[in-house]
């Protein structure tokens, strides 16, 4: 019948659109991953160092290189992103420092999208007791960020590390230079357990969006 014929044509047209939709999706994903090399905007690091006082202390949670081994990049990408997000809150919306920090956050998120999120969460749980909280001056902080981004650029993504035994007590370090010159909200510390909960929530948001 004519109705059946028209219905068949409509279904055929929809099926023909599927490859184009898939191509569009793949193109968008490619653009997402091609935000740029992790080291593309490293010239901004020098500007951030110039603009922030040398005794400006930034809190960060991380697993030291000597403990994390070849999993150093994977274990520290998300904690660095969180640290940068907290740091952006100390600058106005029109601040060039805020703009630079947001660019680095986007780069870290782009790197994150390349990971198997479940593997990262499991690995971070394995190393949970090895995360250290430290307030470090802005210069060494941005040096650390640069080293991590260079590691990401080289594709140093390993998920197969075995954590060493947990220390008898969790180590928390605060630099002696911590003074009232540091903004109050920079003193806020975060436990690895809380970080993992936020990580799992962010992973869920990425999947549903």
UniProtKB/TrEMBL annotation:
Membrane-topology annotation of the record: Single-pass type I membrane protein
Start-end of Polar residues biased regions: 168-190
GO cellular component, one term: cytoskeleton
Domain of life of the organism encoding this protein: Eukaryota
One Pfam family in the UniProt entry: SCF
The keyword Mitochondrion is assigned to this record: no
Keyword terms, alphabetized: Cell adhesion, Cell membrane, Cell projection, Cytoplasm, Cytoskeleton, Disulfide bond, Glycoprotein, Growth factor, Membrane, Secreted, Signal, Transmembrane, Transmembrane helix
Listed SUPFAM superfamilies: 4-helical cytokines
Region annotation (Disordered) ranges: 167-190
Localization (cell): Cell membrane; Cell projection, Filopodium; Cell projection, Lamellipodium; Cytoplasm, Cytoskeleton
GO MF annotation, one: stem cell factor receptor binding
Family statement: Belongs to the SCF family.
Protein name per Swiss-Prot or TrEMBL: Kit ligand
Organism: Maylandia zebra (zebra mbuna)
